[in-house]
Each structure stands twice: as C-alpha cells, then as structure tokens.
Specification:
The complex is a heterodimer of chains A (about 425) and B (about 300). Chain A is an alpha/beta fold and about 425 residues long. Chain A folds into two domains: about 55-160, Periplasmic binding protein-like II (D-Maltodextrin-Binding Protein, domain 2); about 170-415, no CATH class. Helix content of chain A is about 65%, strand content about 5%. In chain A, helix 2 packs parallel to helix 10 (about 225-260) and helix 16 packs across helix 17 (about 405-415). Chain B folds into two domains: about 5-220, Rossmann fold (3-Layer(aba) Sandwich), CATH 3.40.50.300; about 225-285, 2-Layer Sandwich (Alpha-Beta Plaits), CATH 3.30.70. Chain B starts with a strand and ends with a helix. Chain B is globular, with a radius of gyration of 23 Å. The longest helix of chain B is centred in the middle third of the chain and has 16 residues, at about 165-180. The chains are: A alpha/beta (about 425), B alpha/beta (about 300). At the A-B interface, helix 1 and helix 9 of A face helix 2 of B.
C-alpha cells in the first residue's frame, strides 16, 4: 500500500509542477477574475458613451410626429433625443458626417401613415434604429386608430398586454423563477463537469501513454502491480483536479465578494448563484466524483493500449464522443428536463453524471430514482475498474505499430492468468 | 537461494514463445542467456519477474514464487531502455528506488556513490533527455541495482555502449557478483558471456538447445579449431579424415576438426612439406557453438 502512495504523490507533484498545468491554471484564474469584474470593465469601455444622449436629426414631413415619437422614446428609457433639422437632406448628411448627430431620419407620408428612412455613418449598430422604428410603429398604430375613429380607451384595451402567469400544482415543483435560476446553475455546473472530465481524462491517458512510450513502464510494472499504478494515477489526478477546482472556487468567491456592490443582478442573478440549494451542491459533488471516476478509469485503460503518444487522441476519441453526446443531451434537456428521452438516458451510466444531475437540479426526482442511477453508476465503475485493471496490466506490455481498440483483446490475452 | 524454472511454457495464441524450459540458476553466480532474436529471452525474463504468468510450469526463487511483495529483492534492466525523459536524474532514481522499497535517505546515499563510481556526479541535477545515450544507460543500470537486489536480471546490458563504458559496467557487474548477487543476463555478444558466466543456456525458438556449465559445454562440443600458418599450399588438408571445415586465410588456413586425434593426423600430414610457422589447437569459442547450434536449425 505504501507504494501506492509513493506513486500517487509522484503523479500529483509531477503534474502540479509541470509548465502546462501552471499556465492553464494561471490563465483560468485570470479569466475568473476578469469575469467577476466584467461589469466594471465593460462600464469603463462603454460608460462615457452611454451617458451621453444620442442625437438624431429629423427631416421631412415630421409635422405632429416629433412629439409623440419623443415621448414614446422617453417612456422606453432610452437616451435618444430627436431634434428637428432645418435644411436639406444633403445638409443633414453633412451634419451626421461631421459628428453633430448620430444619425438622421427622413420621414415621408403615404396614405396618411408615416414611413421613414434611417441614415447613419454605420448601420451595424441597430440599437438606435430599432428603437426609433419601434417608436414610429407605435405612433403609426395610434394615427391609424385615430383615422378609424376608434375610441382611445377601447384602443388602450386592445393594445394592453394580456395577464399570463404560470403556477405549478405539484407541491415540490419549482416555480418559474426557481426554474430559471436552476437552469442557469445547472448549465454552469454541466459545463464545468464536461470540461473537467475531458481535461482530467486526457491527462490520465497522457500520463499512462508517456510512461509507456518512454518505456519506463517496464521497470515500473516490475516494481509495483499495474493495478496499483492505475489507481494511483486515477487518484493522483483526482487530487490534482480537486486542488485546481478548489483554487478556482476560492479565488472566484473572493473576486465575487470584492465586487459585490456592482454584481447585483446581471449575469449572476441569471445563473442563480445567489441562492444555491445545499442538496444540489451535494448532488453536484457526488455526480462529479462518480463521473470523474468512470471516465478516468476508461481513460487509463485506453491510455495503456497506446504505444506512441501521438496515438492517444485517436484512442480516446470514442470516449470524448460519449462525453460530448452526454453534454449535448444535457443541453437539450435544459429546456425539456421532463422529456422521456432525458429520463431514459439518465439511467445509462455513461450519461448519468450529467443527465441525472440535470434532472435533480431542474425537477423533483424521487429519491429512489436517484439512488438507482447512482447504484448503477457505481456498479459500472467497479466493473470497469476490474476490466480496466486487466486490460491495463496487459496493455502496458503491448507494443505494436498501430494502436487501436482491437488491442483490447490482445491486452486481455497478455494479462490472462492460466 | 536458487532460481528454478520447471517445465516453463508460454504460449501467445498459437505461437509458442517458450517451450518446456527447465533451468536451475545457482546462487551468487552469473548465468548467461543466449539466443537469437525472438528466441524467447525477454519473455522468459518477464515470466521470472512475474510480469507474465507462464502457460505451464513454475518459477520459484528460493522455493517461493516471485510477486510484487518481493520486488525489493529483484533488480531489472530491460532490453528496451526507458526512463522518464523530463525528470531529473536524482528524482528519477530516488522514485524508482522507493518503488523498490528503499527509503529516501538510503536512496540518495546509494545514488551518490553510484554516480561517483561511473564518473558522472555532475548529471545528478540534469534531466535524462539531456544526457547522451551511453550515460542514460548508466542511469538505467543504476536504477536496476540501487536497491541492492539479491537477484539481478540484465537484458542486453552492454548493447550500444562504447568499449570504455562496457568495461566500467562489466566491472560493476563483476563486483556485484562478488558481493553475492545472483545475476542472470542475456547478450548477443558471445565474448561477454564467455568472459563472465560459469553457466549458460542457449535458447532457440523457445527451446533450450544447449545448457550447462561453460567448460562442460565446450568439452562436450568436441570440435576444436586448428590454425596453421605455413609457406606452402595447405588446401590438401581439408581432404584429411576428421576435418569438418576449412577456411583459407592469407597466411595459411583455419580448420575445424572433430577431436584432438584429428589434430594429430593433420600434424603428421604436415611433416616434410616445408616450414610451419604456426600450429595452434584452440578450444571452440562460444561463437562457434552458438552458430552451429542455432544456425543449424535455421537451414
């Protein structure tokens, strides 16, 4: 057992000290800090502009339109300021080009309703033009109603938005607000799970393949049992992953705390990070660890079949595809967590970590269902560990020209106990 | 403390890598393992180490099978050399020594004395990939012996080394043997085996074709080599009874003869023909034995 910890420590420390790990961690930390200060940074860039009013010149047949347009725009909480422009179209063009106005609109009238053309230096930014178009639409409807001699009160009634609320009848079902919060949270967690499994899975496969391709493996397996080596790798990398994620969380939490005043609303409200349920957090950890173990065992097994490092990607591609598939189904499931497809797939062990977590996060899933899926997941992990250990002990002795899944058979034969 | 292989057979599917091999390797001796490429040497070593299980038969060291609990008494230098390329020499050796059950301090002490011995103490802090191939091989050798194994298995220990390094390594191997290590080693180089081993075994397609004590093997081989240098034409000698093969060289000829009696015939046949500068009867070299035993079955 002592050797197991020597190997575990070796895997952990070696990776921890590696340049690629330090760089990835550093970049991710910068990203987290950047994200936490996102609002402050964007304000610094756009702040000045948004404070100033956008002046828009109006020419053409604007009689009686300017005032309702402006009042509508003001009501929409915009900063657009319309101004009558005395002069020709060419002069207006000149004024926009000189930067006196953001844009100008030319209003014409046909059949008693207005239409307009919007001129600006750049029309890539549709923010201003859209708002003016909306305002004009509104004014046009009003004019049309007036012409049809509809009572303004009746008109108000017609155009008022309908009251519509959704209420869940099941006692424990999540309310609309909770659901949208949960959706954001589950989304973030699925994403983290997806990345972590791919990244750490890759790391393990690389780790095994490096030892094999440098042929140091033969000394290692004559010193300690391949099974102990495999699990030392899996847990070594797990420890590394936990250290990394803990670091991210601590830094992330501090960064968020420091910026708490500026962070009311916005991104964080959407992701529902403000009020996270404890049970969901526990589920996250359980599914995360089980998911990791499942894919890590698979990765170690596949890595042991490789003779050259170049072949690692090729061999773990099927595993990556399964992870991507799980993630895709989960993304689909975010909007339809109660669909039969998601329910069924959440029992398939390779999909369980993501999909069952999604269901737990979004719906009220009976505890026995969760228990069943976790049980099946653990059984699969154990089965995979037994098979993986056998393939690993044979695979590490296997050197061939091509590395493919066909080698599994050869590896099993090598490790056969007769 | 002997290593005993009894009726060991290893099959991979339909191919037989090792076929009914029985050996007794005596304690504190050096045992030579010879064989062409693919003769089953490495497979045999892997079975001795417990990396593979024999299909049939048993391998015991000191009456017990070798398992991972005993890995500290075994040292192994694999044919395919391999170390962590990115790791420093000292980290590497200490890690591998600890996996063989050595504690850290002892590993550091041994490491220093070995590096000193191979005149490479300055490489302690270097990464393995920065070293020359010969020096990497020395590090590899240290990794096999640093934990003072009772049984040392060396697979082609001298391949790819220059003569100076071969001598250094050979001396280290002899010292280990004197200190009481049982050593099994394989080589293509007959002269190394001839020089170092008392017992040997020649494998051919997984079967032992020759095995036993070196002197015995040579004696029972019977054939001897006869070198004759003379000023006159010697081609008529090959017609004499007891001469197996003959080869002309610039100064005379080299004959392979059946036994010592044949040498007497040749000696008589030379009388009165002229001046003979050299008449030299030699024991057969291991090389001759190897070529005859292994080469014959190729044909």
């Amino acid at each position: 057992m002592n050797k197991f910890f020597i190997m575990l420590a070796h895997t952990y420390l070696n990776r921890l000290k590696s340049k690629s790990f330090l760089i990835t961690t550093g970049v991710t930390l910068l990203l987290i800090i950047g994200l936490a200060n996102f609002e402050m940074i964007t304000e610094r860039f756009t702040g000045k502009e948004s404070d100033e009013n956008q002046k828009v010149a109006v020419i053409g047949e604007r009689e009686g339109l300017l005032e309702p347009l402006q009042s509508y725009l003001d009501g929409q909480d915009t900063t657009i300021e319309l101004a009558a422009f005395e002069g020709t179209k060419e002069e207006a063009e000149q004024a926009v080009q000189d930067g006196e106005y953001t844009a100008f609109i030319d209003i014409a009238e046909s059949d008693g309703t207005p239409n307009a053309t919007y001129y600006a230096n750049q029309i890539a930014n549709t923010n201003v033009s859209n708002q003016i178009r909306e305002a004009l639409q509104q004014v046009k409807v009003m004019i049309a109603a007036e012409q049809a001699e509809i009572d303004p009160e009746v008109f108000q009634q017609i155009s008022a938005p309908v009251n519509f609320e959704t209420v869940a009848l099941e006692e424990n079902a999540k309310t609309e607000e909770e659901l949208s919060e949960a959706r954001g949270l589950v989304y973030v967690m699925l994403f983290i799970m997806y990345f972590a499994v791919i990244m750490y899975g890759n790391m393990i496969a690389m780790e095994v393949a490096t030892e094999k391709s440098s042929r140091v493996m033969e000394i290692l397996i004559s010193s300690a049992s391949p099974v102990a080596q495999m699990f030392a790798k899996i847990f070594g990398i797990a420890l590394l992953g936990l250290s990394q994620i803990t670091l991210f969380m601590v830094v992330g939490y501090q960064a968020v705390k420091m910026n708490q005043e500026t962070m009311t609303g916005g991104v964080f409200d959407y992701f529902g990070l403000n009020n996270m349920e404890i049970s969901l957090f526990v589920y996250l950890i359980v599914f995360f660890i089980l998911g990791y173990l499942l894919y890590a065992t698979l990765a170690a097994m596949l890595g042991s079949l490789v003779s050259r490092i170049e072949d690692v990607q090729q061999l773990i591609a099927p595993m990556t595809l399964v992870i991507v598939a799980a993630f895709m189904i989960a993304m689909f499931g975010l909007n339809a967590p109660d669909s039969g497809f998601v329910t069924v797939t959440s029992y398939i062990p390779f999909f369980t970590p993501m999909l069952m977590f999604l269901r737990v996060g979004m719906l009220d899933v009976p505890i026995w269902e969760v228990g069943l899926s976790i049980g099946m997941l653990i059984a699969t992990i154990m089965l995979l560990a037994v098979i993986g250990a056998r393939i690993y002990s044979g695979g590490v002795l296997l050197y061939g020209k091509s590395s493919s899944l066909k080698d599994i058979k050869a590896a099993l034969q090598l490790s056969k106990k007769e | 403390m002997t290593l005993q292989l009894a009726g060991v057979t290893k099959r991979f599917g339909s191919t037989v890598a090792v076929d009914d091999l029985s050996l007794t390797i005596p304690e504190k001796e050096m045992f030579g393992f010879l064989g062409g490429n693919g003769a089953g040497k490495t497979t045999t070593f892997r079975m001795i180490l417990g990396l593979m299980n024999p299909t049939k038969g048993s391998i015991v060291w000191n009456g017990e099978t070798i398992s991972y609990e005993k890995s500290h008494i075994i040292g192994y230098l694999p044919e395919e050399r391999g170390l962590y390329p990115k790791l420093k020499v000292k980290d590497q050796l200490v890690y591998l020594a600890r996996l063989r059950g050595m504690d850290k301090q002892a590993a550091f002490r041994e490491l220093d004395s070995w590096l000193e011995r191979f005149y490479i103490p300055e490489y302690k802090e270097k990464k393995v990939e920065e070293l020359s191939k010969g020096n990497q091989q020395k590090i590899q050798f240290i990794s096999a012996v640093i934990h003072k194994p009772e049984l040392l298995i060396l697979d082609e220990p001298f391949s790819g080394l220059d003569p100076v390094n071969v001598e250094q390594l050979k001396k280290a191997v002899i010292d280990l043997k004197t200190a009481g290590t049982t050593i099994v080693f394989s080589s293509h180089r007959m002269e190394h085996v001839e020089e170092l081993c008392e017992h040997l075994c020649i494998l051919q397609k997984g079967r032992p074709v020759v095995q036993g004590q070196l002197k015995e093997i040579k004696r029972s081989f019977g054939k001897k080599n006869l070198r004759i240098h003379a000023d006159f034409d010697l081609t008529y000698l090959k017609e004499l009874p007891g001469v197996v093969t003959s080869k002309s060289v610039s100064e005379g000829c080299e004959l392979q003869i059946k036994n010592e009696a044949a040498a007497a015939h040749v000696f008589e046949a030379l009388q009165g023909k002229g001046f003979v500068r050299l008449f030299d009867l030699e024991e057969p070299s291991l090389n001759d034995i190897f070529i005859e035993k292994v080469g014959a079955s190729y044909e």
